[in-house]
Amino acid sequence: MIETGALLFTAVATAMVVGALIEGGSLILNKLLEDKTPDHPDKYETYECGELTIGDPTKVKYTINFYPYLVAFLVAEVAGVIALVSAASPNWNALIGVGMMFFALLVGIAWMRKIGVMTWMR
């Protein structure tokens, strides 16, 4: 009879060998199928789509005007995931928790609109 530890070691070792073979095979296949043409000199420009760069592209100042939208989106995503998870066991506690989370999300969005952060046109 095979011991549980030996069986687990065999399974892990087999998975590691199979993973290494798949990864090595994909690297070899990539090397065989890669494009052999030399790089174009414009390949390493800031905009490789053909746009000419005006000024020094490393000195561009970025604004973070989109940050509030990102935060609101992440909060909405978390609320959606929690709503999906709580739908697996529908009870009053889960319903109240999800309702409170969506209420907090709506209050936050309303507050951001009130102070003028979430406006499409400036």
TrEMBL record:
Which Gene Ontology terms of cellular component type are present? membrane
Tell me its family.
Belongs to the complex I subunit 3 family.
Q: What is this protein called?
A: NADH-quinone oxidoreductase subunit
Tagged with keyword Transmembrane: yes
> Which positions, given as ranges, span the membrane?
6-29, 66-88, 94-112
Q: Name one GO molecular function term.
A: NADH dehydrogenase (ubiquinone) activity
| Cross-referenced Pfam families | Oxidored_q4
